[in-house]
Structures are given as structure tokens and as C-alpha cells.
């Protein structure tokens, strides 16, 4: 397909008084009209429809990447400029046979996707992080910052959470772990899901919260809306970056404060990364039980240190942080990417250390059965359900 034909159709679409719909069928109809207006329409109807459908991938969706993004097994797609395309189907990034062509073609796709989401992406603003209309999270970096770019990253969006049974079948959880986590949800025990990038934190959190009682009101706070809860009363607040004038930013900490005024039964932070940690801990210690969030962390034992790094710069002293953790946020569910896929490796409990020096994090349950803190977790569950 020639770039000249694409340019002709783009100009006609821009000139049409009625903009193209995001719906695939009506979007194709707009392209058919644009082809006819440009004088490039094939004479027979079959060829016209075939050409319009081919063009729609380049003009409406994510172009040649759209089939990958539509694949339910794919969680991530990355593009390294003209160097190739990689996809993750649960076993890590693997190179695909797909080629996007020259770097300027990749740049054109990136700029179009960013513009469709209302963000600027050009030499003056060479990176963007947006959510596409279908929920896919899209990040792009342009040259010269991206030396051999543009570099594109897509995190696909699942419209419905996995069930715990499906996660057991996928070996993300053992049956015993799933039963224990379900008890935690019903007991409204606050928890963090931790792990590295792409290990399944958001997927597990959505699955767990989908098992909360239907009469509970869940308010989710996220940088980019990714949690797809299968729950009848879940609301999402999404942060907003500053505009080109540097005004209008709304951060996660502000959204947690707003969530507190929305009569929530549970407050959930999609990813703890800054001042919102202070607000979340405060909420969990003032009657808002059952809260949860995710945290990037190499091991469950690193959680206190990671939270210190996030909270201390925002005015919460170390002793105060430790006191709030022991009073409210006691449980950590840790995941890892292994040779067998994404797996929950332990459910751990945060507890006071032997001295005032710090906190301890000890496994209550692993993939092999109970751990040293199994009794502590059982006690916490009994207290919550008494």
C-alpha cells in the first residue's frame, strides 16, 4: 500500500465534515467515502471494500500492530524503531515476523495514536503516555531522545478480570493460595500485590477485587485506567498530566483524597509510586478497610524499604510509616515471572521486628504450603471475621 494513497485518504478524511467514528464498521464507511472522493476507489465493490478494510488498519487502529493487540494471549507489544516488533504472550518478549517499515512510518503511527488520545507528540514534546480508546496503554519516545527510535510500548487492556479458577488453571496461583486470598477479600484484610514489571500484579489485583461482595462500593485510583473489575459497583478515578502550559495536573495523592469523600467501602491504588502512599495508609488507618494496591518490588521482604523510599520524602517519618503498616497494611502477595509463566510465589505478613530497628516480612504461605507466619495470618483473618 503506497504512502501516496494513505496521504490522499487522510486528506479526504480531514476534509469530511463528519469525523470518522472509532467504531470499526462506521470507520470503514468513512474510508470508503474518502476513497471515492479522492478518485482512488477501485471500480468494483469487492475490491473497494477490501482496500478500505486494509486502509482502516493504517488509519483507525494501531495499523499493522492491531492484530497483535487484538490477540487475547498478548499482554505487551514493543516496537524498536525500524528494528522490529516484539510481543509477550506470557513467556516474555519474543520477536515477531512483523515489520513496520522505515522509522518515519513508525513515527507517523505514534503521532497519530497520541493525537487520537488528545496528547501532543513531536520534537517539542518527544514522549507521551496515554490510554487508547480501547483501553490499551500506549507509550512512545521519539528521536533524538530515542537514539534509534521511535520506541513504542503497548500494554493491552483486558475488559474483564480473570476468575481465580482461571488463575489456578494458568498456574499463577495454587488452589490453596486462591482459597486463602479469597478469605482475605471476604475478611476485608488490606493487602499489596508486589512484583516486577509485567509479572501480573494488575491482573491478580483485578481478579481478587472482583470477588468483593456486590454491595460494596470500590473506588479505584490509577495513573492510567487498567484495572478491569468484574464488579457491579466499581468506580475509577484517573490522574491527569499537566497541559502544554504546565497547568491542570491532578496526581494520585489528590485523587485518593477525593476518593475518601465518595463513600467508598474500599479504596484501591492501581500502583503506589509516590505521595499517594501516605494518603492510602492514612485511609486504611481511619476505618476504610479492605483497601489494596500494587507496588514494584523485587521481593516481599523489600516492601518496607520501598514504602519508606516513597513516603519519607512526603513528610511521613519512618516510625510513623512503620506504625501505620503494622496497624493496617499487613499482607503482601508477591509475584514473579518464572520459566513456567507469571506466578504468585508467596503471601507474606509484615510484622514488628525484634527491636525498634525495623519491620520483618515473613512468608505465611508459599507454593509449597504454609510458611513461618501462617499462624499470624490466620489470627488476622479470625480478628476480621469475629
UniProtKB/TrEMBL annotation:
CDD domains: VirB11-like_ATPase (cd01130). Pfam families: T2SSE. It comes from the Bacteria. GO terms for molecular function: ATP hydrolysis activity. Residues 61-337 form the Bacterial type II secretion system protein E domain. InterPro entries: P-loop_NTPase, T2SS/T4SS_dom, T4SS_GSP_E_ATPase, TadA-like_ATPase. Belongs to the GSP E family. This is TadA family conjugal transfer-associated ATPase. It comes from Glycomyces albidus. The lineage of its organism: Bacteria, Bacillati, Actinomycetota, Actinomycetes, Glycomycetales.
Amino acid at each position: 500500500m503506497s504512502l501516496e494513497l494513505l496521504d490522499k485518504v487522510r486528506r479526504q478524511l480531514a476534509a469530511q465534515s463528519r469525523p470518522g467514528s472509532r467504531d470499526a464498521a462506521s470507520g470503514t464507511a468513512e474510508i470508503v467515502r474518502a476513497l471515492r472522493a479522492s478518485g482512488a476507489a477501485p471500480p468494483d465493490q469487492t475490491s473497494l471494500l477490501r482496500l478500505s478494510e486494509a486502509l482502516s488498519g493504517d488509519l483507525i487502529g494501531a495499523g499493522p500492530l492491531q492484530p497483535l493487540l487484538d490477540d487475547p494471549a498478548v499482554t505487551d507489544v514493543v516496537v524498536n524503531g525500524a528494528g522490529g516488533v516484539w510481543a509477550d504472550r506470557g513467556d516474555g518478549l519474543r520477536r515477531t515476523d512483523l515489520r513496520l517499515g522505515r522509522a518515519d512510518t513508525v513515527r507517523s503511527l505514534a503521532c497519530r495514536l497520541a493525537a487520537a488520545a488528545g496528547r501532543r507528540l513531536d520534537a517539542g514534546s518527544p514522549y507521551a503516555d496515554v490510554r487508547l480508546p480501547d483501553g490499551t496503554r500506549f507509550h512512545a519516545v521519539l528521536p533524538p531522545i530515542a537514539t534509534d527510535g521511535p520506541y513504542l510500548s503497548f500494554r493491552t487492556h483486558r475488559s474483564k478480570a480473570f476468575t481465580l479458577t482461571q488463575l489456578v488453571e494458568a498456574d499463577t496461583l495454587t488452589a490453596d493460595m486462591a482459597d486463602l486470598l479469597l478469605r482475605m477479600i471476604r475478611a476485608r484484610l488490606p493487602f499489596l500485590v508486589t512484583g516486577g514489571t509485567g509479572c501480573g500484579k494488575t491482573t491478580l489485583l483485578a481478579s481478587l477485587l472482583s470477588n468483593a461482595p456486590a454491595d460494596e462500593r470500590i473506588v479505584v485510583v490509577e495513573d492510567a485506567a487498567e484495572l478491569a473489575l468484574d464488579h457491579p459497583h466499581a468506580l475509577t478515578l484517573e490522574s491527569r498530566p499537566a497541559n502544554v502550559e504546565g497547568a491542570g495536573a491532578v496526581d494520585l495523592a489528590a485523587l485518593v483524597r477525593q476518593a475518601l469523600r465518595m463513600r467508598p467501602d474500599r479504596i484501591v491504588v492501581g500502583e503506589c509510586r509516590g505521595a499517594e502512599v501516605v494518603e492510602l495508609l492514612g485511609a486504611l488507618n481511619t476505618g476504610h478497610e479492605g483497601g489494596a494496591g500494587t507496588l514494584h518490588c523485587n521481593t516481599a521482604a523489600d516492601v518496607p524499604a520501598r514504602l519508606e523510599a516513597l513516603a519519607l520524602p512526603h513528610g511521613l517519618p519512618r516510625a510513623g510509616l512503620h506504625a501505620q503498616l503494622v496497624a493496617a497494611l499487613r499482607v503482601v502477595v508477591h509475584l514473579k515471572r518464572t520459566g513456567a509463566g507469571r506466578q504468585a510465589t508467596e503471601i507474606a505478613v509484615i510484622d514488628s521486628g525484634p527491636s525498634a530497628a525495623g519491620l520483618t516480612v515473613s512468608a505465611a504461605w508459599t507454593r509449597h504450603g504454609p510458611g513461618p507466619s501462617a499462624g499470624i495470618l490466620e489470627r488476622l483473618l479470625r480478628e476480621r471475621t469475629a
